[in-house]
Amino acid sequence: MKKTFRKITMVFALIALTGALFAAISEKEAVDIALSDAEVSRDSVSAIRSHRDWDDGRDYYEVEFRTDEGKWEYEIDIESGRIVGYDFDKAIERRAFEDGIDNKEAEDIALYEAGLGRDEVSRLRSERDRDDGMIIYEVKFNTSDSEYEYDINGEDGRILSASREKRGRVSGDRNATLTIEEAEAIALDYLGPDAENLSVWEDRDDGRFWYEAHAKVGDYLYEMDIAGSGEVHSITRELRSWR
Fold this sequence. Notes:
four-stranded antiparallel β-sheet, alpha+beta, Nuclear Transport Factor 2, Chain: A, 12 strands, 24% helix, disordered N terminus, globular, 3 domains
């Protein structure tokens, strides 16, 4: 009798699991749900990023995208397709000034792009410079685990280049077995579906195992260093036509 009950229980468990698998939405469907809720089309957004995540026993897709209006972030439950998390940051108004932007506005642009507030960073500083007749603001700041640097056009606030690099040593990568296919997947997950001409190759630095990735996303060229542990150690992007 106990064996029969155990078999029945296992059958129902398998049926429930199978139903959950077939009910689960895809990553593309999660993106469509987020875009529909924001009432924006794919043609009007840039840098769509999405990935599967797990938190406190909940399996969900995290979806992020930008328009001229601002930045949206969604958390979509994988089983039901229900929106379980939402955040919207309004874009900084890019006004045209006769004398261009000032230091504070350059800092605000950099912080907005990084998704950080002034109270979340340290050593925030900016310096006005000139490169081949162009006024440029160099903005730098730190978080607890990363260093950020931006070059911003002093006339219109356009980001010319940006970089983020992890601080300190990256552990667990000397004997890692990350494959080139896994490194490509990490790069695409980070850069989003608009990434083009992705190339990834193995590299070594001071005995440590790395992958270096290059790609194009819109008007920017990207370079990424991916540690053997799978951690994105640094990422740099530069506007293709500003120099």
